[in-house]
Amino acid sequence: MYWQEERQDDNRTVPDDIVDIVYSITCRCLPVDHAYALSLAVHEHLPWFGSEEHAAMHTIHVAESGNGWQRPDEPDALLLPSRRTKLALRVPGHRIADAEMLVGRTLAISDEYSINVNKALVRPLSDITTLFARYIVADGADSETQFVEKMVAQLRAMNVQPRKLLCGIEKQIHTPDGDIKTRSLMLADLDFDESIQLQQKGLGEHRRMGCGIFIPHKDIHQINENLG
Predict the structure, then answer these.
(1) String of b and e for 39-77 (b: at least 16 CB within 10 Å)?
(2) Does 144 lie in the same domain as 194?
(3) What pLDDT does residue 109 have?
(4) Is residue 112 located within the same domain as residue 137?
(5) Residues whose CB falls within 8 Å of the CB of residue 62, separated by 6 or more in sequence, listed in order
(6) Which CATH number goes with the domain that contains 183?
(7) Does residue 226 have a pLDDT over 80?
(8) In which domain, by residue range, is 30 found?
(9) What is the CATH number for 58?
(10) Structure pTM?
(11) Is residue 11 included in any domain, yes or no?
């Protein structure tokens, strides 16, 4: 695989009309498949979240450890968040104060699991032009080739010209209305404006359950880990 370093443009300013609100949390453990329950919990405390066009929720991700621990794939398996684990929402700038109202609340994931939300920080979007999304809705794409073709079409419809694209294995998000089929997706060698647009608007459906949300990706050595 050929991979060039990201192109940086120091003269470009990242807009602040969409930002991430990053919360420190206290959580003993959490099911791997928590996207639906966490989205409901956020909606309960932030009623505006479901109708805000550019609002999105990052699922909680626990990094691989250097001690041999790997993130499990089984939906009922448990994640063990550390003190460094964060919850993040992507919201328009005019909703920053509203999103900060989540501080001090307890998010009920089930009768057994919950998340205590602590202090919040505002984090701007990134100027990095290699982006990664852990979950992109892949319904209607039965193969990797079909998924890639679907993504290329959606990106071009947004006036984004994909130059380097890499997708991961299929995973499911469980909901009462049925499973949502997803794949991870990495895009590289984007233009600055394309990167910002994708971070602001996302790609595909179910962004309030963690799908279609792009984050910066800096390290080529993590590609295989993230796409798995």
Answers:
(1) bbbbeeebeebeebeebbbbbbebeeeeeeeeeeeeeee
(2) yes
(3) 94
(4) no
(5) 71, 79, 80, 81, 82, 85
(6) 3.30.70
(7) no
(8) 18-124
(9) 3.30.70.1890
(10) 0.86
(11) no
- Report whether pLDDT(208) > 90: yes
Last residue of a domain, one of 106, 124, 142: 124
Mean pLDDT of 120-131: 95
Least confident of 60-74, 101-115, 166-180: 60-74
- Both 159 and 108 in one domain: the answer is no
| pLDDT, position 219 | 54
How far apart CA 108 and CA 115 sit, in angstroms, is 7
Residues 73 and 146 in one domain: no
